[in-house]
Design a protein that fits this description.
28% strand, 28% helix, alpha/beta, Dihydrofolate Reductase, subunit A
Amino acid sequence: MRKLIESSFVSLDGVVGDAETWAMSYFAEAENKQHGLARLLGCDAFLLGRQTFALLTANGRRSDGDPYDDHVSSLPKYVASTTLRPGTIEGTVIGADVVAEVTALKQQPGKDIMKYGNGALTRALVEHDLIDEFVFWIIPVVVGSGRRLFEGIDMRHLQLELTGTTRFGNGAVTLSYVPIDVRVPV
């Protein structure tokens, strides 16, 4: 079965919202971007929420010779949305039953599936234990305000076990965690 990996930028004060305004200068550095590409090469699809999809494609990502951007452009994108309609985007819209559709997607043959961002889609995925790994890119900035990591998401049934760390020259760090189910049987 394919793994679903959620990767999110997180500020030192726990903010994930509007990461494109405070995280990208760190990620754009060669060392960080190469690490991101290495992780992405193990995946053959994206799962994205509507807003993250819009941000990812806002600049019309195209083949520009940058290996990371080229790979991002080449991957099929599955977009969870109740407002987008099939055929209106360059991707597959899922939305009628996101849990069933993601479960089916994970059961298809192939490499892992990458999900960027942490928001409304994460809530449904966490509630149904569909995320197999969390990767947090800790960016050494204090944002002050904005949507926080796991805001509005009940994580009490999960513990996360640290499985990897990477430290970058610019002060950013990635932390990789896998969920450990700690539900009490009823």
